[in-house]
Design goal:
InterPro entries: Cof, HAD-like_sf, HAD-SF_hydro_IIB, HAD_sf
Protein name: Haloacid dehalogenase
Strand order of the largest sheet: 5-4-3-2-1-12-13-14
Pfam families: Hydrolase_3
GO cellular component, one term: cytosol
Distance between the termini: 8 Å
GO molecular function: magnesium ion binding; phosphatase activity
Oligomer: single chain
Strand content: 15-25%
């Protein structure tokens, strides 16, 4: 039997327009009618994720920031796994010294080091998913998107810690030449700060969390707290920050558009995010469970 459905958002639940397609909505409602709950497990924070879920009429718990925080349906934080303050300051210092575009996430919001760079990053993401679209149109969409308008912009992200006393949950570095810049930095940070976990959700970024703040550990904890058998959980994802939960779940699906290496960690493959891949994974798993 299937006890729980868990899905990533970007590149998975969301389509090329960064919306939840009707096929996925219908499949989630179908599982609700069967008494099977649905949980989003995303690199996004609550506000970023909730906007898309509200548009689709889906109310569910949100495991955010790569597994480092759990929000209930109403946005109440049930737990969070923070990066040590000094470690977070050290990592942000490295980012500023290297000249990276950066984002820092807390339980309150996502904070960006540059509005222009945030627009550029979302423009590139939209254009990559819609290659037929002009860069000008992609930029217009990016500028008007929730992924830009709901973000808080700060001249110095370090003041979130030093002046405001906020705890940093996730840090993102973005650069146009990741192979020669942020990927070597990821190795350096991983060696210097063993209590961190470094992954990626987009080819131009790295994402830094506490070592205990992974999607896999979050899904395992959610199952333990709510009495679900993880062997009966469906997990769907497309990128490296999804690997830990794909390895943990009994029914793991990689999207057709997933990174090739990510597919090696999933038991099954579904269709792309352009083609209702989450819905396909849900129906496939329900059918498989009927015959087990």
């Amino acid at each position: 039997m299937i006890e729980l459905i868990v899905s990533d958002m970007d590149g998975t639940l969301l389509d090329e327009h960064m919306d939840i397609p009707q096929a996925n909505i219908d499949a989630i409602m179908h599982t609700y009618n069967k008494g099977i709950p649905f949980v989003v497990c995303t690199g996004r924070n609550f506000t970023e994720a909730k906007v898309k879920l509200d548009e689709a009429g889906i109310r569910c718990p949100i495991i955010g920031l790569n597994g480092s925080i759990l929000f209930d349906r109403n946005g109440k934080v049930e737990y969070e796994v923070d990066i040590d303050d000094q470690t977070a300051l050290d990592i942000l210092n490295k980012g500023y010294e290297a000249g990276f575009y950066m984002e820092a996430m807390t339980s309150k919001n996502v904070y960006s080091s540059s509005l222009e760079q945030r627009i550029l990053a979302i423009t590139e993401l939209i254009h990559e998913m819609n290659p037929e679209m002009s860069l000008e149109e992609a930029r217009t969409r990016a500028t008007q998107s929730n992924e830009v308008t709901t973000i808080d912009y700060r001249d110095d992200l370090r003041t979130l810690i030093t002046d405001e006393g906020q705890a940093i949950i996730k840090i993102t570095f973005v650069d146009a030449d990741p192979e020669n810049t942020i990927k070597p930095m990821a190795t350096e940070i991983g060696e210097q700060y063993p209590d961190t976990h470094i992954t990626s959700s987009f080819k131009y970024n790295i994402e830094i969390n506490h070592a205990d703040g992974t999607k896999g550990k979050a899904v395992e904890k959610y199952c333990q707290d709510h009495g679900y058998n993880i062997d009966n959980v469906v997990a769907v994802g497309d990128n490296f920050n999804d690997v830990s939960m794909l390895k943990a779940a009994g029914y793991s699906f990689a999207m057709a558009n997933a990174e090739p290496e990510v597919k090696t960690y999933a038991k099954y493959e579904t269709t792309s995010n352009y083609d209702g891949g989450v819905a396909n994974a849900i129906y496939q798993s329900l059918k498989m469970a009927e015959h087990n």
